[in-house]
User: Fold this.
Amino acid sequence: MTHTPLHPVRVGIIGVGNCARALIEGIAYYRQEPDDDTGLCHPTIGGYTPADVEPVAAWDVDTDKVGRSLWDARAAGQNLDVGLPQDLKPIADDVTVSRAPVLDGAGHKYRERITVDEGEHNTCDDAHRICEEIQAAGVLVLINYLPVGSQQATEWWARIALETGCAFVNCIPVFIARNEEWRQRFRAARTPLIGDDIKSQLGATYVHRVLARAFRDRGITLEQTYQLNVGGNMDFYNMLEADRLATKRESKSGAVTDAYGPICPGNVHIGPSDYVPWLGDTKKAFIRCEGRGFAGAPIELEMQLTVPDSPNSAGIVIDAARIAQTALDRGDPDVDAWASAWLFKAPPRSVAEQDDTEARHRLDAWLEEA
Assistant:
């Protein structure tokens, strides 16, 4: 069953990069085209449509974005055209992007391209200020879009979510939802925690999982597999810094091996491969699977997937935010594990090995409850 929402899904955006741009422009699009449900996994969740998602606060460290309206900041700095319509009516043009604490949120590759607003280096003052901003804006769901490798910064924002009672949607490969200590803290607060590391709507990881499970279900031994990804946005540029990639590789590799079962680690290579500037926000993924079928007969599969990288993630975040809000409305955050398993690469380990179809079934059953 659904209900008519009494309020918008008031989100705060942590990191106004390309993914945030795609989300903001997507919300603007569905407001202009309310009858168009193209590209949506769930047109309505808990009575909320994509048009009901309302960005009311945002934070960044880029001097080109801090202090600007969110609508202007979405296209500022190193952000690229993400391929959505250009004739959109602005939204969130009355929301000013505030300064976030830097911590480890800007690695040396990022600093080659942006000027960081360092602030006063006082995270206690930052925490007090940002909690006040969250409360003043009425934020209900915090969406973490920090760069890959932002361990300290993500944990800092997770604490802010707990302190302010906001649901937390962790889109990056820093383990919060998968970390049992963090999970118990959010459980004790009865606050939804959804993550970690977004799958993308039809991304390389989801497709690779489908292929790996097909090998398993059809009795084919998967002996070796790789997934090589290239793109031209700041996410890929940031990932040229190898030290920031440990959890990213773990997240992507685990998402595939969870779908199949144990594979010798030396026979699995999955992760971002290179930055190709002229690709812009386009991502290309190259997937290869090698195995043995009946009586050891060899089987090889190769495919290439080309997608717009940032809109591909926005199609998932628009669901995650509405699921989090519905959980808050019901006072029932227990769906977060199944939502994480359906939408993210590294969900809690208790559900990580579940089939995507089972996760979707459990999630949909919860959404249909009164």
Q: What stands out?
A: The chain is about 40% helix and 20% strand. The CA atoms of residues 334 and 354 lie 16 Å apart. The radius of gyration is 20 Å.
